[in-house]
Amino acid sequence: MDPVRNPFAPGAGQRPPELAGRDREADAFDVVLERISRGRPERSLVLTGLRGVGKTVLLGELRSMAVRRGWGAGKLEARPDAGIRRPLSAALHRAVRDLAVRHRAPDRVEEVLAVLKAFALKSNPDGAKLRDRWQPGIDVPAAQGRADSGDIEIDMVELFTDVAELAADVGTGVVLLIDEMQDVQPEDVSALCAACHELSQSGAPLIVVGAGLPHLPAVLSASKSYSERLFRYVRIDRLDRSDADHAVVVPIEREDATISSEALDALFSISGGYPYFVQAYGKAAWDAAVRAPIAADDVRLAAPDAENELAVGFFGSRYERATPSEREYLCAMAEVVEGRDEAAGTASIAQYLERKPSSLSPARDGLIKKGLVYSAERGQIAFTVPHFGRYLLTQD
């Protein structure tokens, strides 16, 4: 099989050749856009799921849907070691530029950009020298007395309100998409919730779509108790058998090739239906096949190559981020669940390591902060990465 024509695309956030199994989420978002366009109230959206299920890809698809409707759209990725002012400013700057194309009053656009610049400049530390001060690249003077108090909650509410009013002027809306939302710092999470609450009460046409790991709802709830009612939560999971087959068959047929039903059985079994793994094993199977149709033997022959690539780029890079004590904890988790994708009891892990549970808290907390595990429920811990336990059991 010609490797140049290989249709599969395993990559972080890279859109697969066929976005299968996400029609329900796309249709629901289309309804949200339409309702807001008609002035009807609607909640912001939070997507949760393990790594490799396609949350980032879906965020990109939702952004494209909004842009096609004439909405302003900005996207950012949260980082645990940085505040949200700068990336949020850049994302909303992009959204405002989208709106400016349709707005007939340049002065009104500049007013909002001035507020946005004032908000952005507050990310600079007090007393910072001029050469060390970050400039947001907005070519208007910063506003005074609007979104520049230094209180992130007050400033974000005012900024969101002004941007939403600009969108309302042109009869459209704004969507702010936040990836890795569980990494937003607590103060900024509280501000986001407050801003979304204010907008939902006023019916302003600005919504937030966040994506993060399964414990993201708990992060939001710990910040604001009303967050449970503020957002609509959607769990993004692995593909079922028919959708997984669709994700494989359609790209192959576009290249005038075929795949046997036995090969599809083997691909689903080895990938577990996780979209990233479907792409990884599909790509390897195409390269391993001499001719069409791709056979089950081709999938089995290609599996070690795919697993070696995953071991370096998907599993290994995450494992290397852990300290020795955290790696010990990860390996103990894998042993307790016997490599399965399920939660392990923290007491069982302590028993396996012959340690007191309290002595393992630093390692567990460090892994949670690094996004390698999450607390499934009280007394339970699980991997954020599918098949991670199986990978760990194969390591020395």
Description:
- Residues 168-357 form the Cytochrome c domain.
- With 396 residues, the chain is of the alpha/beta class.
- The chain has three domains: 3-12 and 239-318, Helicase, Ruva Protein, domain 3, CATH 1.10.8; 23-235, 3-Layer(aba) Sandwich (Rossmann fold), CATH 3.40.50; 322-393, Arc Repressor Mutant, subunit A (Orthogonal Bundle), CATH 1.10.10.10.
- Helix content is 53%, strand content 10%.
- The chain contains 16 helices and eight strands.
- It has helices at 23-37, 55-68, 85-100, 106-121, 152-169, 186-202, 216-223, 227-230, 241-254, 261-271, 275-288, 296-320, 324-337, 346-353, 361-369, 388-393; strands at residues 44-48, 72-77, 174-179, 206-212, 231-235, 344-345, 373-377, 380-383.
- Helix 1 runs parallel beside helix 2 (55-68).
- The two termini are 35 Å apart.
Summarize the structure.
Helices cover 53% and strands 10% of the residues. The protein has 396 residues and is of the alpha/beta class.
Structural class: alpha/beta
Mean pLDDT, as a whole number? 91
Tell me the CATH topology of the largest domain: Rossmann fold
Could you estimate the helical fraction of the residues in percent? 40-55%
The first-to-last residue Cα distance is 35 Å
How is the biggest beta sheet arranged?
5 strands, parallel
Radius of gyration from the CA trace? 23 Å
Number of helices: 16
CATH class designation of the largest domain: Alpha Beta
Instruction: Write down how many β-strands occur, each being a DSSP E stretch of 2 or more residues.
Output: 8
InterPro entries: AAA_16, Cyt_c-like_dom, P-loop_NTPase
Domain Cytochrome c: 168-357
Keywords: Heme, Iron, Metal-binding
Protein name: AAA family ATPase
